[in-house]
Automatic annotation (TrEMBL):
Protein's recorded name: OsmC family protein
Cited PANTHER family: PROTEIN YHFA
Pfam family, any one: OsmC
Domain of life: Bacteria
Length: 141
């Protein structure tokens, strides 16, 4: 049997919720004004994209350190297509890894990204179950 994650999410009134996290930090979820909320929190579907980028980003950052690579800056752009019909879900996601630096080892960085998406990132594996994924690795000098 695997590890269990237990998250507690409490209604704060109107459309707002507060959700805890094993880190000890809480996060607020809220709908936008169009949906009866006040926009005082994060949107659930967008949070899934942050989880995806964060999960893979942690892998890549760890591998950059392990491989002793020189990277000045690194960010991930996650662009997702939401279906038109309810329940709306992401059917396609593009994940762009942007690396900046004067001394980028492109082969090693591609390997780091590949290891994350193929082997380590559990959130990526979950997304793979319901969405077509496209991965791009871009280098900026």
């Amino acid at each position: 049997m695997g590890t269990t994650n237990h998250i507690s999410t409490k209604w704060l009134g109107k459309m707002a919720f507060e959700s805890n996290n094993p880190s000890g930090l809480n996060l607020r979820i809220d709908a936008g004004p169009d949906d009866g909320g006040e926009g005082s929190g994060l949107r659930p579907k967008a949070l899934m994209l942050s989880s995806l980028a964060g999960c893979s980003g942690l892998d890549v950052a760890s591998l950059i350190k392990k491989m002793k690579l020189e990277v000045d800056d690194f960010h991930i752009e996650t662009i997702a297509n939401l279906t038109d019909e309810h329940p709306k879900y992401y059917d396609g996601v593009t994940i762009e890894y942007h690396f900046y630096g004067d001394n980028l080892r492109e082969d090693k960085l591609r390997k780091a990204v590949d290891l994350s998406i193929e082997k380590y990132c559990g959130v990526m594996e979950m997304f793979r179950r319901f969405a077509a994924l496209e991965v791009k690795v871009l280098f900026h000098r």
